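Hi, here's the filled form for the chain we discussed.

Project: internal
Contact: R.S.
Residues: 541
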Amino acid sequence: MEIEEPVIANRGSRFNFLTSIWIVPFIAAIIALWLSYEHFSKLGPEIRIELKNSGGLVAGQSVIKFRDVPVGKVSRIEINSQKDGVVVYARINQDAKEFLNETTKFWVVKPEVDYSGVKGLDTLLSGSYIYMYAKKGKQEKEEFTGLDLPYIDINSGYYYVIESTFPVKVKVKTPVYFKGMKVGEIDNLQLDTESKNVIIVIRIYNEYGDLINSTTKFWVQSLMDLKLADNRLEMNFAPLPILLLGAIGFDSKYDKEYDKGYNKVFQLYRSVTDAKERKVGFSKSRYKKFIFNFRGDVSSLDMDTPIKYKGFKIGAIEHLKVYYNSKLKNFEAQCFGKIDVSNFSTEKDDGFSNFKDLVKSGIIAKLKKPNFLINQSVIELEENSATTDLVKNRKLNAYILPTKEFKDTNLLLSLSEISKKIESLNLEKSVNGINSVIESTKVPIEKLGKLLESADKSIKNLNTIIGKKEFQNIGSDVESTLKEFQRSLKTLNRTLGTYGKDSLFKEKIESLLKELHDLTGNTNTLLFKLNKKPNSLIFGE
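And the returned structure, exactly as it came back:
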């Protein structure tokens, strides 16, 4: 049986080519073309950014973010041959092209570590990147100059100026608090070369702009508050962010009659206590410059030494000069201070005119130390019988107030002087002298006693003689006189006997002198402890 060989029919088709092995690379090419089209269709222009340094940027890796969304990538980084710094070229996505205009700002975000903490924490894993700020504008740009610091839109808050006359430990981004809530931050710090004061520019967030008005007072936030109430000492520490960053606090009145505080330079106070100190008088603050010349112990004088009148703070010392007077052999201090004369204003009278009348009626400046444990002074204005007119030093452009030489009333010094006076009495020598006097009088007293005994015998003999008949006719007056003389001698004998060696008088004197001697020793011990540890009176040993 023959087996027939099968015949394979050739079915020709126009799709043979597509079903062949070339279909795979053909499809791959189409996909590649499509992806290329998608890539270049979204690819925007290449921009040029000038920076002072690369800040850790890497070509082909670092991105550009706009509103926290990646909108571009750094393509290459070159050295700027014409200026100091580098030039960064970056390709921006097509959808962000319309934001490349005159409002666009760029800056580098990189990890930074300082005393306030870690900044740019998100860059620790992703690396440094460029952040972009922009709004829709009219003129397109492709060349930009990068910023050293993050850009802040002035419309994102309210800006105010604070002037500090003392060194303050704050920096840019230091928070501003209102009743414990963060409502702003420091935007800029500058030094006024003319006034030598620190100028602080703060930004208050939009939602809290109504908190600032002409009554607002700013102060440096305290790191620790001490309060003595109900015989208890309370100690409160500030939150950790304030301990690390420092902070500025403020408070305001809410009356609608106050303006919003625009175009006003606010004063920075050292503490909330200084900021909320009571204001007396009817007019606005009006400061006048004054000169105070003090002599003696002026070591406690310093800048910001308060000037007070009737317990109210009316001014403070701004600066002073201390020098040695060779003629008087003493130190002298020339203090320059400001007094707010508005404290003396009334509803009808000007504060300065009232202050001049007060000086004319007799007033003098005294240097005092209200706390003997702390070497801190205060200048008190007190009434004085001597009248004088207020004289102005034209050269220094300040008024001169009469002063009185400072005499320290420190309790320690007073106790020391008392101790020295007691020691100068030489009590031991006095006791020994009294003892010697008593010893020296013992013999005469004994002789006087013998003499009295002899006199008593004589009187008895005299009585015997008187008892005889020859004297019977002598009047009774003589007899009574002799008897009275006898009684007087016996009384004198008893009195003198009390001053003897074992007498009560001697014991009283010795007891008194011993107590004075012990008092001197205890006073010296107290002075030694106080000099070694002045606060031992409050906190104990």
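Let me know if anything looks off before we file it.
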